[in-house]
Structure formats: structure tokens, C-alpha cells
TrEMBL record:
InterPro entries: Bact_2-comp_sensor_kinase, HAMP_dom, HATPase_C_sf, HATPase_dom, His_kinase_dom, Sig_transdc_His_kin_internal
Gene Ontology cellular-component annotations: plasma membrane
Transmembrane portions of the chain: 93-112
Name this polypeptide is given: histidine kinase
Sequence ranges assigned to domain Histidine kinase in this UniProt record: 284-388
EC numbers for this chain: 2.7.13.3
Length: 390
């Protein structure tokens, strides 16, 4: 193989070397070209005879120890300080390259890891608070990553638990209040009784004497009164059939008709299919009593009380209606407000008694409505959304 190189090309290659020193192109031991200005190439120069300072490093290169160019060599003489300076520059270059490529990503990873750890620790602290019944939510952040989703789910779960506990707490309070009101209503009823057993026995004696004297109407009324006393004494029995409740209502209305004479008429209507169903005891009688005393008693004539029980799409519907004096609007508003606020017993004890006991037994499955127009009458309407078989 033959390679022709122009002398100017060799000069350009040699002068591109940046190290401080000299390059020599040798054939054998004879200098053919050098960057050392002290060497006179016009005369035959011997490389071995050229002066070398103590701090000079001599570098020769064939190619991996094999002389590919026969008898040709390139030899460099460089100052040791220049060579070491290049090494130092290379070391600094590596360091400068490592800072942005190693240190900066490391700092970013550390920052990101600390951020994740801090967010997880915050969730853990709030979980411990929930364990101690402190239902605090975590301040919302805009992060939509997995931890952000975990935070959102934790907040949703915490609010739901807090709501459930509140509902259970309120329900428990309402149950206790209804039980207290029930006990109060029983106490009021007991306070209104004057030795009921004595009265019951006395009435039975009077009834028997009336029958012996053939005073059948008087005996019938006394019998109705005795039945009312007997039923009112059985407080341990909370539920009765609709048939028994209507029987009690009929006894009461029979007595009231005896009092008012022709001024009062009454009708009791019930579907045969509902007579065996159970309702809380004394659910209708207090409403009938209210209708007769506050509605019919003020009339001169033509009073009518209508009691009806049946099934509709709404559920079991019980209605007590009269055409009596009615309730003034302000008084009706006051009664409804007192029922909503669950105020203590005062006036309208019978209405409140019925309402509170219905709420105690049926909770939110019962509706209680009162409508009235002054001079036209009053209607009580109870709607029960569940059936209880007797």
C-alpha cells in the first residue's frame, strides 16, 4: 500500500496538538519533520542527539506496539506539567459533568421522596386521630396522584363515619326522649286515675243493680265505662288489634252520646282486612276524645264524629273526623309547632301523647296530620307504612 501525504497536511496535523511540547516525525532515527523550531531540518538531524530537559516526557507511538509504517515513527516530547495539567482538566471535566447528571437528579429524588413521605405521614396521623374518635379531614390539595386519591378517599370515609355516628347519636337521643315522653304520658294517665280498681268494681256493682231494675240503657253505659277502665289499666300491653282499639272507641262514643243525647252521632268504619293488624294501644281513643270535648261539645246540635280505618297505596290509614267547632289557626299552628319541637306535655296532652308514641314505635314510617277550619271541624289522619300482624 502506498500513501502520499502533502507536507502541508503533516504540518497542519502536528500544529493541531494543544499540549505544550514538540512532535517529531522520524524515519529510523532521522528527523523528517518537527514542531521544534530549534531543529534545523535543512541539515540531517538526529533525534537521539536533540536536547531533552529533565521535566520532559517522551511519548512514542506505533499502533498498539506494532510498527505498521516501516521505520516511521511519531514521537512527542512534552513537559510533564503540561501532561498533568491536561489530566487535571479531564478530572475537572468529569466532576463538572457529574454534578448536573448525578447530584441534581439525586437532590430531586430526595426532595420527591421527602414530599411523598410527608404526605403519607400526614395521612397516618389523621388515621390515628380517627382511632381516637377525632374525625378531622385532611386539607384538600390539587395533587391527582395516588396519594392525592388516597387523601380524597380518606376524607370521604371520615365524613361518612362522622355522619353515621351523628345519625346514630341523634337516633339514640330521640329514642330516649320518646321513652321519657312515654313514661310522662303514663304518669299523667296514672295521676288522672283515682283508685281505678275501686271505680271499676263500683261500676260493675251499679251495672248489675241497673240490670236488676231493668234499666238497660244505664247498664249499657256503665258496662262501656267499665270496659274503658279495664283497658286503660293494662299498661303492660303496648300493642292491640285494630278491632280492640275500635271497640274501645265505640265504648267511649257510646258514653259521650249518652251525655250529649241527639247532639252527637258517630260512625265507625273499617275494612275487614285490617281488623287483625296491630297498632299501639290508645292510638285513636285520645283523638276521638279530643273531637267530642273540643269539637262537638260546643255545638247545639248536628254533631258527627266519623272514625275510619283502611288500606290505601300509602299504607294503613286511620282517620278521626268531626264537624265541630274546629281549631283557631293560631292555636293549630302552635300545636303543630310543639309537635315538631317535641316540647314537654302541656295543653293538648292527648294529641301529643298519640304523636310521641307513634313516633316511638314507628319512627319515620308513620305520618301524623292535623287539619282544621274554625267552625267546620277537625281531621286527624294517621298513615302507617308498615303492617304488624296480630
Amino acid at each position: 500500500m502506498k500513501i502520499d501525504l502533502h507536507p502541508e497536511a503533516i504540518k497542519e496535523i502536528f500544529h493541531n496538538v494543544t499540549l505544550e511540547g514538540d512532535l517529531y516525525l522520524l524515519q529510523g532515527n532521522e528527523i523528517q519533520y518537527t514542531t521544534n523550531p530549534e531543529v534545523d531540518l535543512a541539515q540531517t538531524a538526529d533525534f537521539a542527539a536533540s536536547p531533552v530537559s529533565k521535566d520532559t516526557i517522551v511519548i512514542g507511538e506505533d499502533f498498539k506496539g506494532v510498527p505498521y509504517l516501516s521505520d516511521w515513527r511519531i514521537v512527542g516530547r512534552f513537559k510533564e506539567s503540561a501532561v498533568l495539567e491536561e489530566v487535571r482538566k479531564s478530572k475537572y471535566f468529569v466532576l463538572y459533568l457529574a454534578i448536573p447528571n448525578v447530584l441534581l437528579p439525586t437532590l430531586i429524588i430526595i426532595w420527591f421522596s421527602r414530599s411523598l413521605t410527608a404526605r403519607l405521614v400526614r395521612i397516618l396521623k389523621h388515621m390515628k386521630k380517627v382511632k381516637n374518635h377525632s374525625f378531622e379531614t385532611i386539607a384538600r390539595q390539587d395533587a391527582q396522584d395516588e396519594i392525592g386519591q388516597l387523601t380524597a378517599e380518606f376524607n370521604r370515609m371520615t365524613l361518612q363515619i362522622k355522619s353515621l355516628i351523628h345519625d346514630v347519636y341523634i337516633a339514640d337521643i330521640q329514642k330516649k326522649e320518646l321513652l321519657i315522653k312515654r313514661n310522662q304520658s303514663q304518669l299523667h294517665a296514672l295521676q288522672s286515675q283515682i283508685n281505678p280498681h275501686f271505680l271499676f268494681n263500683s261500676l260493675e256493682t251499679i251495672r248489675m243493680r241497673s240490670l236488676m231494675k231493668k234499666e238497660e240503657e244505664t247498664a249499657r253505659i256503665i258496662h262501656s265505662m267499665a270496659k274503658i277502665f279495664r283497658k286503660s289499666l293494662t299498661w303492660g300491653k303496648d300493642w292491640v288489634t285494630i278491632r280492640d282499639e275500635l271497640d274501645l272507641v265505640a265504648c267511649f262514643l257510646d258514653i259521650q252520646k249518652y251525655r250529649f243525647g241527639d247532639k252527637l252521632e258517630y260512625r265507625i268504619e273499617a275494612d275487614e282486612s285490617v281488623l287483625g293488624l296491630l297498632i299501639p294501644k290508645m292510638s285513636l281513643q285520645p283523638l276521638v276524645e279530643n273531637a267530642s270535648i273540643h269539637g262537638i261539645e260546643k255545638l247545639k246540635e248536628g254533631g258527627l264524629i266519623r272514625v275510619s280505618v283502611g288500606k290505601t297505596e300509602e299504607g294503613l290509614v286511620c282517620t278521626v273526623q268531626d264537624n265541630g267547632a274546629g281549631i283557631p289557626p293560631d292555636r293549630l299552628a302552635s300545636i303543630l309547632s310543639e309537635l315538631e319541637r317535641s316540647e314537654e306535655m302541656g295543653e293538648s296532652v292527648g294529641i301529643k301523647n298519640v304523636y310521641y308514641r307513634l313516633k316511638l314505635y314507628y319512627k319515620d314510617k308513620v305520618g301524623f296530620e292535623v287539619s282544621s277550619r274554625e267552625g267546620e271541624g277537625t281531621t286527624f289522619r294517621i298513615v302507617v307504612k308498615e303492617d304488624r300482624e296480630g
